[in-house]
Amino acid sequence: MTGAPHLTWQPSLLDAGPQAAIDETFARATRIELDRLSWIERVPGWVSGSDALFDLLVHTAEWGQRTRKMWDQEVLEPRLTSWWGAESGRPLEPPILERMRRALSGRYGVEFDSMGLNLYRDGRDSVAWHGDRIAREIAEPLVAIVSIGEPRRFLLRPKAKGAGLATRRLVLSRGELLVTGGATQRAWEHSVPKVASAGPRMSLTFRHGLPPFQRLPDVGTL
């Protein structure tokens, strides 16, 4: 499937602006320790004018809907996805996405070489508990998620049972950046649960070190 999906979308007056911009100083960054080896960093309002970017990507990205095998049958994944990888040779467009990639690579000291777009059209769209599949030789992978569109719940829980660590319940707001680091992608899993009612939300997920079998046009999480 390509082209713009039909959405019931109401931009926010608080995030109005003709085009998106990013805070390359990361001035509002806050580090949160999940456990001794795992952390996340939140940067609220990292993208200003994010509603304009949301509208642009909805209408210009090549959206697809993947299938998953569940109980011996193929079912449609409850969200739409799009993907870019540096190895494709294609530029990352629009240019604001390349500025994001360079700023994130510079701050966190890795070369983010892929980006997945994930579109949650309403409260029925979701992603179940999972951890990202990243090359095993990367002990502490970094994943950077930019959330645009309507705020949505984002949950984190430890994989080890009985570890005495509680589930973290976050709400990612318009233009917020969330980075998972340390052992988070190895020791924790995350989800975006279904809700009774929600407006459309999109995540822009930057990664490095995807294993070869993950380097497909329909890759996306979070």
Task: Explain how this protein is built.
- By secondary structure, the chain is mainly beta.
- It has a single domain, classed as Sandwich (Jelly Rolls), CATH 2.60.120.590.
- Helices cover 13% and strands 35% of the residues.
- It contains 3 helices and 15 strands.
Q: Label the overall shape.
A: globular
Distance between the termini: 20 Å
**Low-confidence spans: pLDDT under 50, at least 5 residues?**
213-221
Q: Do you know the CATH architecture? A: Sandwich
Count of the domains:
1
Order of helices and strands: EEEEHEEEHEEEEEEHEE
Strand line-up in the sheet with most strands: 2-3-13-10-15-8-7
Number of helices: 3
Helicity, in percent? 10-25%
How would you classify the helix and strand content by structural class?
Answer: mainly beta
Rg over C-alpha atoms, rounded to the nearest angstrom:
17 Å
CATH H-level superfamily: Alpha-ketoglutarate-dependent dioxygenase AlkB-like
Q: Briefly note the CATH topology name.
A: Jelly Rolls
